[in-house]
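note to self: dont lose this again. the chain is below, predicted strucutre after it. 584 aa total, dont forget to put it in the shared folder this time
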Amino acid sequence: MRATQSLRAISRLSAMVLLAGCYTGLGLGASSVGDGGEADGPGGTADGGDGGTTDGPGELLPEEFGRVATSGLRRLSVREYEDTVRDLLTDPEIAAAQQLPPDPLSPFDNDYRHQIASSGLIDATEFLATRAADALAGDTARRDAIVGCQPSGPDDEACMRSFLSRFGRRVFRRPLTDDELDEYLHGSTGADGVLSHAIAANDFYVGVDTLVRSLLQDPQFLYRVEVGTPVPGQPGVFELSQFELATRMSYFLWGSTPDDKLLDRAEAGELDSPAAVRAAAEEMLADPRAIARAARFHALWLGYAALPHSAELNAAMQTEADAVLARVLFEERLPWMEVFRFEETFVSDMLAELYGLPKPGSSEPTWVEYGDSGRRGLLSQGSFLSIGAKANDTNAVRRGKFITERLMCKFVPPPPPDVNTDEPINEEGAICKPDVLAVHRQGGCASCHAMMDPIGLGLENYDQLGRFRELEPDNPDTPDDESQCTIPGDGEIVNLGAFRGPAELADLLLEKGGLSECAVAQAFSFVSGHSILPTGEVNGFDEFDGAFVEAMLVAVGDGELRFDELVLEIVSDKAFRFRREEEV
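---
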């Protein structure tokens, strides 16, 4: 079938795309554009203001476009692949993480710059497509519901075409062209397509099986194609078709393929204004997938998507974090930053005991108030406090670096090449951690460690599981007994102020540390498919991304912004329907 051949071809193409930093088309025909082979989808111009009048895209200024999906070609992440196949085939058992190459985190798993095609990717997708098709064939009720018609025999072209049209639209996230339908049904010669397979086997569903395997390996399934059409007078700027816009919305809000309702809207030209896009997104936010996607974003941003503890403890911590996010962001719809101030948490007896909170008297989690424990919000949970953990202790430097980069959006330069960061610090007379770390703040390492170490030291009263402690644990690799060291617990963000513990750290970050701005920047990195954060080469956000972040902060009110309002502002902003080619 053409799928395996074209997938191998796209592996070479996408590698060149990622190296070049730009993209001009798949070379697979006009269908690559996105809506039934038309270069301009319905509603091809950007609508302004309230959606009642139409502004030509030429009236937009260049700086209004953040660099969203600059390559025009973005591979599904492992999680997006799993969720997409699950939605397409209604298969709850799909599991791809052990087969597909892992996604590098930067901090998100959808950065197109790291999505390198490989033979391992091709082999894994072939295996997963085969397994998914086999599982569907073995579940006749599910298979018949997805096929959607009753075949009269193995050669029932009308039924096969109907299935391919409906299912293929969900897979490719746009309607298939007549040429594509014919090629899948009849092949390149007219006698080597899926109908030939079905007739040879005297079984219509052999053709269905072949189609499912082929579609799930097609590059236009594995890659989100966001090519668009050139905007006159705006070099390097392209306007998305409505199907491409629907796809961008769906993977931002749900992490999965658009459903039939959203595709119907795109096909009818109903995503032609900010107001229409906003209305569609409001409905999408009511779907449980939106809650799961928001939880995924926070887990990647705050570093607890994968935890280093037992399976039971990891699950309990993930459940706790997800429950707080769902309650604050979706149930009570409080300002987004309340997730860092929330006075309750969702724990069972196991986690309550770990945190020193009153036990709810149940192995099932329930809501418990933090009270006077000194804890509040996500930064007080074991999921966040596990960051940078070593086998038997915390790492104050890693915690400080993480908070500086993830919550303040500040760049921390790497250590000098001649410094071995794995080598223990041995300073005569330095036993307790504050004294040991003071050695960092000398010589060439001083500037960075003066920024990171005081932040990490302010969390030292909380161990790598999130338990409160007053003494350091003994380090078996040293001759000294560190268990006699009292932990002061004093922290500082240089030039901002002092704090003790995660609750005061959150307050300081919110009041003076730019957490709201950084949070919006992280959200834009997530939707755009590339990190916009400072890298050392760029001191702060670049002019395009920085302008978009600033506009979003103004639109939603900085510290009082609600997460759902931010999402709606992003997707309904005129710039969301464009992509900017990356300069090389």
